[in-house]
Amino acid sequence: MKKIFSILMLLSLVVVSACRKSDNATMPDGMVYLNQPHITKISGSPAILDDDPMSFEAKIGIDLYFKDSDKKPDYLDFVVMKNGDAKNVKTLKGNITSYPDEFDVSGQLLTDLFGTIVAGDSYDFGVNYITGGATYLAFPEVGDGYGANVGSQPDASPTARYSAICSYIADDFIGDGKFRVVTDGWADFGVGSIADVVKVDESTIAITYPIDGFNPITIDINLGDNTASVARQPLGTYGGSWQYGTLYVASTGGGNANYVDPCSGRIRINGSYTVSAGGFGAFVLELEKAQ
């Protein structure tokens, strides 16, 4: 029987960045302080569709994370890396000295730089940071650009990625509706069992729950990038010794944790399971086409 747990955490975060050594006399000699780059998706295509990569167009923003700091680079070079290969990086725009800035990218531009785009390709955008005659790479061959864990700060975005995805077409993706369970964190389906998936509409599917009387898990799919979301919805109640009433599920963790992948025929949901009294945590449910 699943039981509710609660966790009380005290988080203490001390961030020292983009400052002068004189501001903190305890900072060691030789430490280099950078104003963390901030790369964002402003508008345009959320992803590259493998069956029409030339239709991809997007605008990317180039800025600094600490906007009010007097610590700024001498200049930035805007670069792009293909498929995580730090030896395959191209410069898109050099000597950027005013912020914020913007840059338009397209499927044609990426094809001109790297060749044909196929499903599974990924393109990471970032900046090389130049200051005091030294260059700090966005995509070094060893380690993380600008230092470890810089992306963990609130709303930080030191790089931006666009990936080439298989287009989602509901009927083709669902097929006969038979999907094998490959991950079942909540343990109601059972790994290796077959789950029925049905089409609700062109961007909505539903996974039939394996317990009589329970509602299906309804999943909304973003046709632009194949990310998925589950709005908080009631599943049912287990009865018997279950004391917590109706069980609810909702997706959590964003698009990196919730998606459909037409290339591999997979559905992945990171579900937060709750009842009126509290929550149980997040558990992954992942299915793949059975045939």
Automatic annotation (TrEMBL):
<keyword id="KW-0732">Signal</keyword>
<feature type="signal peptide">
    <location>
        <begin position="1"/>
        <end position="18"/>
    </location>
</feature>
<protein>
    <recommendedName>
        <fullName>SusE outer membrane protein domain-containing protein</fullName>
    </recommendedName>
</protein>
